[in-house]
Specification:
This protein has 64 residues and is of the alpha/beta class. It is built from three helices and three strands; from the N terminus they run βαβαβα. A three-stranded parallel β-sheet has the order 2-1-3, covered by helices on one side. The two termini are 22 Å apart.
Length: 64
């Protein structure tokens, strides 16, 4: 299974802990460009975008 895309980088600690406890593969990125550059061959399995730190950047990530 391909990893989940997580924004922002660094991932919020409680979210990272939850994903790790669920034994999910994930990778955090800081920009849409990073997300495209690090995208696995089969694409991301999904995305988690948090809005609590930088709302504008989070919406930019969702639009990418």
């Amino acid at each position: 299974m391909n990893p989940l895309l997580v924004f922002p980088d660094p991932c919020p600690p409680t979210l990272a802990q939850t994903l790790d406890f669920a034994q999910l593969s994930w990778r955090s990125v800081s920009t849409p460009e990073r997300a495209r550059a690090e995208e696995p061959d089969g694409g991301w399995s999904g995305a988690i975008v948090t809005l609590d730190q930088d709302v504008d950047a989070a919406w930019a990530m969702c639009r990418a």
